[in-house]
Amino acid sequence: MTQTIVYLLRHAQSLPDQEVAEPEWPLSDTGVEQALALVEPLNKLEIDRIFTSPFRRAIATISPYCSGNDLAFEINEDLRERKLKEQSMLDDWQDLIERAWDDFDYALLNCESGYSCQNRISNCISSLVTTHPGDTLLISSHGNAISLYLNKLDSAFGYAGWQSMKNPDLFRIIFTGDSPDWDKAFSI
């Protein structure tokens, strides 16, 4: 049966700014250095196709790798971060995230529940695997979206798992046919 490898890349450190819409948050200076440092380890993965969230920080994280290897990436709206709130930031965002992890149905008005985001990103990844069987895919996305996907693969991965994620972070999922298996032993 065909194996497809998916690498889920959480973007490098960003620079949140109350005055800038969240999708436009750039990488911090540290994040730029982190993105450059990803080039060498990503080179070892023999990636065939690259997909990214439309958010600036996700694109900026993979851009050095793409440029250095003359590779193109494809933007996929369904890889965007979960919308937790209408405004960019709020003082109690940590409490909001914790509540959202406690109740996957919880969502503020015009925002996305945990179940909704989890289904969106799961369907997106499944579709990419179905469309590109046997390939090695790199997907640049966000902490909340990726952690909700990982939770779908292993329900023990929850709020504490999300908190333990780094910027950047990389996870390997091996699909045999359309069946995903999270390779927890993998690290860069």
Description:
- The protein has one domain (about 5-185): Phosphoglycerate mutase-like (Rossmann fold, 3-Layer(aba) Sandwich), CATH 3.40.50.
- It has helices spanning about 30-45, 55-70, 95-100, 115-130, 145-155, 160-165; strands spanning about 5-10, 50, 75, 135-140, 170-175, 180-185.
- It has a six-stranded mixed sheet.
- The radius of gyration is 16 Å and the shape is globular.
- The model has no long low-confidence stretch (mean pLDDT about 95).
- With about 190 residues, it is of the alpha/beta class.
- Strand 5 (about 170-175) and strand 6 (about 180-185) form a beta hairpin.
- Helix 1 (about 30-45) crosses helix 2 (about 55-70) and helix 4 crosses helix 5.
- The two termini are about 25 Å apart.
- It contains six helices and six strands, in the order E-H-E-H-E-H-H-E-H-H-E-E.
Structural class: alpha/beta
Oligomer: single chain
Low-confidence stretches: none
SSE arrangement, N to C = EHEHEHHEHHEE
Beta-strand percent range = 15-25%
Summarize model confidence as the mean pLDDT. 94
Strand arrangement across the biggest beta sheet: 3-2-4-1-5-6
Distance between the termini: 27 Å
What is the CATH topology descriptor?
A: Rossmann fold
CATH structural class: Alpha Beta
What is the global morphology? globular
Radius of gyration, taken over Cα atoms and rounded to an integer in Å = 16 Å
CATH architecture: 3-Layer(aba) Sandwich
CATH level-four homologous superfamily name: Phosphoglycerate mutase-like
- Profile the largest sheet: 6 strands, mixed
